[in-house]
Amino acid sequence: MALNIIALVLVAGMTFVHSIFGFYSGLINVFCTIVAAVVALGFSDALTGWAASALGLHTGYIDACSLLVLFVLTLTILRVAADNLIRGNVHVPQWLDWGGATVCGFVIAQICTGILVLSVMKLPLTARVLGFERYVRVEDLNDPVHPERVLMERRALWTRSDDFTVGLVSLVSAGSLKGATSLRDVYPNYVDAVYFSGNTVQPESTPAPLRDKGGDGFKGVNVVEWWKTNGPIDVRYRRAAPTETNKSPPFKPINGFKPASGMTFLGARIELKRSAADRDRKSARHLFRPTMIRVVGRIGDRPAQYTPIIIAGAEEKSTIPRLVDYDNNFSITDANPTIDVYFEVDPEFKPQFI
């Protein structure tokens, strides 16, 4: 709730302030803000990797800072350059001056708020940030595709500032500001990807891989082999989430679990290296949730991403594959385990990387 209120106040306040400056100034600000957002989302990963390896900074915090600093720095440089290089003004009817400035102010406010929200969500705060969570477990409802599973409902901010920002940048990075690789090629849904990484087991778990003397976590996942299958797969599933009063809800066996109609299973055997684990000087432990494993590829010309629906070999108490939900916790003490993950994908999906 708090994050929604903060985002709403920021959007309303910035829209009002920019409406005072006029339509011409608003157009210049819109251009500067869009370019700043493209630079921030396009280069924040590279800056994070460099800062972690060269300066030894913790990726769990520098990832969020990289996004915000790049945006603010680029916007400041462009705005100062515009003030000094673009002289004069354009006179338009008053209604257009106010109306156009308000529209421009709204776009600027949405982008600025969207970048700020995404930066906050990149911090190691777990999936719930200031009362807001992207995917919420709804105990009383079943998943419409697989009724045996609980519904994980997607939520959005009231203002949808993050979705607006990413959508606009994805559109521009695949068009007029297109480079060798567009944002969607790596992050088909950047907003969900931020949640997937930040959906950690506990606050101290890093949402970004470590890169230090202990190893390069950015290279901490190795794909041994891929395969496709239509199943069926015998699995076990725990519908209820652990609570203080019920720490170990029972599992239910599900025999012959199959992919949904028109879908197939993409299996992958992956090796999790010690460099990708939550670690200190003495020990390493892989603490993760299913969303922290993401496969990216293409369905024809369209980029797509999936998270696992089944995980096998990640639990010491059972060798039976587990049908998973977004909020399930896994803890592997082996520093270099090999696990099998199954993604429910479109039959035409071609994987590129995990």
Mean pLDDT: 91
Category by helix and strand content: alpha+beta
Instruction: Kindly state the percentage of residues in helix.
Output: 25-40%
- Rg over alpha carbons: 22 Å
- Distance separating the two termini: 33 Å
Strand order within the widest beta sheet:
7-10-18-15-16-8-9
Order of helices and strands: HHHHEEEEHHHEEEEEEEEEEEEEEE
Determine the number of helices (DSSP H or I, runs of at least 4 residues).
Answer: 7
> What is the number of domains?
2
- Main sheet summary: 7 strands, mixed
- Strand proportion: 15-25%
**Which stretches are low in confidence, meaning pLDDT under 50 for 5 or more residues running?**
none
What general outline do the C-alpha atoms trace? elongated
Question: How many DSSP-defined strands?
Answer: 19
What report would you give on this structure?
The chain is an alpha+beta fold. It folds into two domains: about 1-135 and about 155-175, no CATH class; about 210-354, no CATH class. The chain is built from seven helices and 19 strands. The strands form six sheets. It has a seven-stranded mixed beta sheet, with no helix packed on it. The protein has a three-stranded antiparallel beta sheet with strand order 11-12-17, with no helix packed on it. Strands 14-13-19 form a three-stranded antiparallel beta sheet. A hairpin with a 2-residue loop joins β13 and β14. α2 packs parallel to α4 (about 95-120), α2 (about 25-55) packs across α5 and α4 (about 95-120) packs across α5 (about 160-175). It is elongated. The model has no long low-confidence stretch (mean pLDDT about 90).
